[in-house]
């Protein structure tokens, strides 16, 4: 009983932390939560289903909070959310048909790829802001939504890691509205994926106490994250989250039947990952501080002539 209660508390804390990251970065709630569920031995389809059921509530609260703070572009929400829901339903039914032995390493590979993308993308480049104000067209958002929705359901996360960087890279929508719109449209994706999992695996394999724990933590964090999106440096957060995802999924793969690495090989891999992760976070912190100092110098230079 005590162990079960500790697990629920841990899941609630994970839900809270994951939603803080997701709401301020536009990604990583599903990837982070699913990674933990896989690490404690949950069936891949059931893990993704659990996370998506919790996301119905967290994305609803998160979307409302982002809307309240003016972080949502409703045209983008509809253009990407509807095809995203179609892709998510297809991905959920596809994952439900895979055996656990096949699905676990496949999902870990997807999550590992997403983790690498998050780490490299935010460490190396930060957030692009060029071409602001130009419209985002359906011919861009529709295929993006289909792919992101499919990856999200099959990987237990991916809507944000695929959708957010793609829109940010276009430079046409400011970061806070990109994050708010992606978080809000994920409500449609979560509903569609959950329906797909119910069709595919039913409700017997889903632990609804775990759903409630993840949901509770996420709901508490959602309004805080919507406020923090204007204050937390996304570059540093992206590097930190990417490292967590990489480490956890490499651990799963090294222990899988596909690789079955020895203890020495595993710890050597972990050491390399820890070193690279620490370097990435340190670099992101330095770049953020340098950008902050440069902005302060520019602001001072603009004020100085006015004083003269």
Describe the SSE topology.
Blueprint: H1 2-25, H2 29-39, H3 44-68, H4 74-96, H5 100-125, H6 138-155, H7 159-170, H8 175-201, H9 208-228, H10 234-255, H11 263-307
Helix pairs in contact: 1-2, 1-8, 1-9, 2-3, 2-10, 3-8, 3-9, 4-6, 4-8, 5-10, 5-11, 6-7, 7-8, 10-11
List keywords for this structure.
mainly alpha; 82% helix; 0% strand
Can you characterise this structure?
With 308 residues, the protein is mostly helical. The protein has one domain (2-307). Helix content is 82%, strand content 0%. The chain has 11 helices and no strands. The protein has helices at residues 2-25, 29-39, 44-68, 74-96, 100-125, 138-155, 159-170, 175-201, 208-228, 234-255, 263-307. Helix 2 (29-39) packs parallel to helix 10. The longest helix is centred in the last third of the chain and has 45 residues, at 263-307. The chain starts with a helix and ends with a helix.
Count of extended strands = 0
Q: Residue ranges: pLDDT <50 for 5 or more in a row?
A: none
For the residues shown, what is the average pLDDT?
Answer: 80
Q: Tell me the count of domains.
A: 1
Strand content: under 5%
Radius of gyration: 20 Å
Shape: globular
Main sheet characteristics:
none
Question: Secondary-structure element sequence?
Answer: HHHHHHHHHHH
Query: What is the terminal-to-terminal distance?
Result: 72 Å
């Amino acid at each position: 009983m005590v162990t079960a209660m500790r697990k629920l508390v841990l899941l609630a804390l994970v839900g809270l932390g994951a939603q803080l990251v997701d709401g301020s970065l536009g990604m990583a709630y599903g990837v982070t939560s699913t990674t933990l569920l896989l690490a404690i031995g949950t069936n891949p389809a059931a893990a993704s289903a659990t996370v998506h059921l919790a996301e119905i509530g967290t994305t609803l609260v998160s979307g409302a909070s982002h809307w309240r703070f003016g972080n949502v572009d409703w045209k983008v929400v509809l253009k990407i959310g509807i095809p995203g829901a179609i892709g998510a339903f297809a991905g959920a039914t596809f994952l439900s048909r895979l055996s656990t032995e096949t699905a676990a390493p496949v999902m870990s590979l997807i999550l590992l790829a997403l983790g690498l993308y998050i780490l490299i993308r935010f460490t190396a480049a930060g957030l692009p802001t060029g071409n602001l104000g130009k419209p985002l067209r359906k011919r861009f958002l529709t295929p993006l939504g289909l792919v992101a929705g499919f990856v999200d359901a099959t990987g237990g996360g991916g809507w944000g890691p695929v959708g957010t960087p793609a829109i940010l890279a276009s430079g046409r929508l400011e970061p806070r509205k990109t994050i708010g719109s992606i978080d809000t449209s994920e409500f449609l994706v979560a509903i569609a994926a959950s329906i797909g999992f119910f069709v595919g695996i039913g409700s017997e394999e889903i632990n609804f106490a775990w759903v409630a724990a993840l949901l509770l933590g996420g709901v508490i964090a959602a309004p805080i994250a919507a406020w923090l999106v204007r204050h937390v440096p996304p570059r540093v957060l992206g590097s930190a989250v990417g490292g967590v995802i990489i480490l956890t999924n490499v651990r799963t793969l090294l222990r899988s039947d596909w690789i079955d690495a020895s203890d020495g090989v595993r710890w050597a891999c972990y050491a390399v990952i820890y070193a690279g992760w620490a370097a990435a976070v340190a670099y992101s912190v330095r770049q953020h501080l340098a950008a902050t100092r440069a902005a302060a110098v520019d602001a001072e230079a603009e004020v100085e002539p006015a004083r003269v």
